Every structure is written in C-alpha cells, then in structure tokens.
Amino acid sequence: MDYAFAFSGGSPVIKKYQAGESMSVAGVPVVVGGAGNDGIVRSATTTASDLVGITTSTVTVVTAQQTDNATTVREVSVITNPDAVYRAKLSGGATAGTDLSSYSITTASTDGLSVLSTGLDFTSPEVADGIVYFLTGANADTYRKITGTAANDATVITAFSNDIAVGDTFTVVPFTPGENQFVQLTSDFSEIDASVAVDTDNNNFRVVDLQLDGVANSYALIVPFDHLFAAGGSI
Does the bond joining 125 to the residue before it have cis omega, within 30 degrees of 0? Predict the structure, then answer.
C-alpha cells in the first residue's frame, strides 16, 4: 500500500524508527512493538492497534555487534500522519498479487435487483453489506451494496441501471465505502485480501473509497482506525 492523501492536506510526514523485526516488503503497517521488543513491528492481518504508520523502506535487523564496528541499530522509514489515507490493491486471496475472482451470471434478472450465479455461495464467506461489481455486460464498471444473501443469490436495494443478463461477469468485494467495516490484509501485509467475509469486529483500517478497474487493477482507499499519534489513541 502507499500514501494517497491526508484529510488535513499536505505531504506525508516520514520518520525513522528502530525496527523490532526484519521487513522485506515496504508499504506495510507497523505498530508498537511492546515491552521487551527492540522496536516497531508489522501489524497482524486483521488488527493494527497503536498503528505507528506505513513503511516506505525495508529493513534487515541485526542485533549482534559487527566486526567492522558498523552500527547494529536498524531503522525503517514510516509515514506517520494520523489522518493519512492509503491506497491498497485488492487481492483475490491471502497472497499479494492474486487477481480477484470473476463469476458469471447463470440466471437473468430483469429488474436489476438480483445477482444470480451458481458459481459461488454468497453466504460462505458471508458478503452481506459488501458490494457486487460488474466486470462485463450492460452494467460493467458499476457496483451496488449487497443487502441480502442466499447460497447463489445476492440482492440489492438500489437496482442496477440495466437488466442483468446470463453470461455477465462480476466480482465481489467484502466491504462498502463509508461503512463501519474493516479489511483483512494479505500475508505480507501489503495488499487487501478481498476473498474473506465482511468484517465489523476488528480495528485496523476502514474503507474511504474504491478505485475499481477489473480483477487485476482494483484498489481500496483506507484510513487507520487506531493510530498511536492521534488524539486519544485513535482517529
């Protein structure tokens, strides 16, 4: 993930901090390491309490004294703005770089209110309050919030502008911008795993907006929920 903008405007504020672990990928969230730790560490995939910020560099931690007398302190650069919004790619699985899954309509909907496909079960994982985003067909490049789910049927309250035809393709994303929801990160913490259920229980990032452009090039704009440098410890 990378810096998109800050709600207060201005440029990212970047600080260097001692790292408590090696980090081979930049653009990942880091949190307070806690008692007994050498420095900041990467967050978990679903939680990021006391977020320090998002890294802009990598680091290899070395703790032993070096024979050439080089410093053993290893630092990592971090964007620290509490109100920063980050752009994170949507992955189709726990591994970064995975395309979003594409599904096909198997039963038409002439009122634009039902997304019917035998290709997936909308309840496993549960995606109610997520979105359906059409990739092809008359509704291509549009999405609607899912308000009801059954095994092979997702319903929306606001109809798609056009009939939904057999063969139209779509994908599902497990959150809606502006809702009280959180994301799950990929295993390397750099992207968002969009193959999971809608999550309202964790505390890492909320979704500000979506930038949808197919299965391989779609992003979410996300904001930290619990930031170390925000007033009261969270924003």
Answer: yes
